[in-house]
Amino acid sequence: MSQRTWVPSPYGTIGPFFxxxxxxxCDDLTQWxxxxxxxxxxxxxxxxxxxxxxxxxxxxxxxxQADAGGVFPHPLDPRAAEADPGFxxxxxxxxxxxxxxxFRTILPGGSREENGVARCxxxxxxxxxIGVTRRLVTTAFFSDTPESVDDPALNCVPANARSRxxxxxxxxxxxxxxxxxxxDIVLRGDHETPFFLD
Amino acid sequence: MASHPxxxxxxxxxxxxxxxTQSLRQIPRYxxxxxxxxxxxxxxRPLTLSERTGPADLARRLPVDRMDLSRPxxxxxxxxxxxxxxxxxVLDEDGAPLAGAMIExxxxxxxxxxxxxxxxxxxxxxxxFTGWGRxxxxxxxxxxxxxxxxGAYPVGESDWWWxxxxxHFSIFGVSWMQRYVTQMFFPxxxxxxTDLLYNGVPDPEARQRITFQLQPTKVxxxxxLRYRQDFVxxxxxxxxxxx
Lengths: 198, 243
Ligand SMILES: [Fe+2]
Fold this sequence. Notes:
The structure holds two protein chains of two kinds.
Chain A (H helix, E strand, L loop, with lengths): L30 E2 L2 E2 L4 E10 L3 E2 L4 E6 L24 E5 L5 E7 L4 E2 L5 E2 L2 E7 L7 E6 L26 E2 L10 E3 L2 E2 L12
Chain B lengths: L11 E2 L18 H4 L13 H4 L30 E9 L10 E5 L25 E5 L5 E7 L4 E2 L7 E2 L2 E7 L6 E7 L18 H5 L4 E2 L10 E4 L2 E2 L3 E2 L6
Parallel strand pairs in B: 2-11, 2-12
Antiparallel strand pairs in B: 1-13, 2-5, 3-4, 3-8, 6-7, 8-9, 10-11
Bound molecules: fe (ii) ion.
Fe (ii) ion binds next to strand 8 of chain B.
């Protein structure tokens, strides 16, 4: 066998022209395969801003999350057989002129590692944009009591920045019976979003 | 239509990317790279099921049979441009093929024009050229598609910067950690010398990993120039295989 080492290829920016057909129809995670996802439907929305609080239009936000029961529809999850057949778990959206993205999804359940460690309900979030040469990865957490959350990823974040990783229920924005959660993403500047090493 | 072989479910280890083999995050003379990348250090966190899983089965959710960008529909005339064939493999850091990886690609037409509302370049649109494809790797991680060589185009926000011909790629491996986006360049293009993104990868060896390799030419139907490049996705098996 070859002794060659295989080095990951260099990442690049997504640029300005990620074409519309690649984005359309990816922002609704509430149904899959003709079935409706179980659990509480929510709207997850927010603004992507850069330094100076300026909106980042035309950025791409992608999500990956567990279903309402905290199961990831993936063979590595020991509970994969219990995964909600109406939930795929992945989404993609583009930001508009105000830097705003919006998804319809369901409130994720908390998950548990095989070693017993619990994860607080959360959604993995990544941002791609002009000027972002390597994807930026963060996490949106969901809790009514953010101060008491014990999560292995959140615990790595400086205490004074943890609150920025919680999606905030904004009842004023609720669309009918669907609760709206806001998760703003500050790429750089005051109240910068904590991002994880990738 | 490609078959969609099941992916390996062996758990992988994900070390952070080695910065020396990657693009700079802040590239001199590329202003957006200074206002859109965090000022605070990136935070190391333990990887859990959440990050080790991912949308590995996207080919079931999205249409994946667009492999000939040079023909809008079977039987219609080809779009304008230099016809090329691009092939290669998607591998992980063990050099193991990634079967069933989804590849998205998008590009400008032969005149350097994208079909995108943000594209203000006054170059002709080719109404037959949609400029995107989506496909899935085969059992040996292999992929191939036919397209036309994209043209160069000016960057609207700059007074000098022309992008060299390039094709954009977005690849989904087996997990949230194995998600890759890049631009692939053509060898020998004069504009490569001045391109901020190409040279934003400072290591010349690493730049070769985002440069297509022209294959020996042949004459005969179908007449097209052939290029190859492999994509190496991050991720190693936890226990190295014994050779
Ligand atoms: Fe481009």
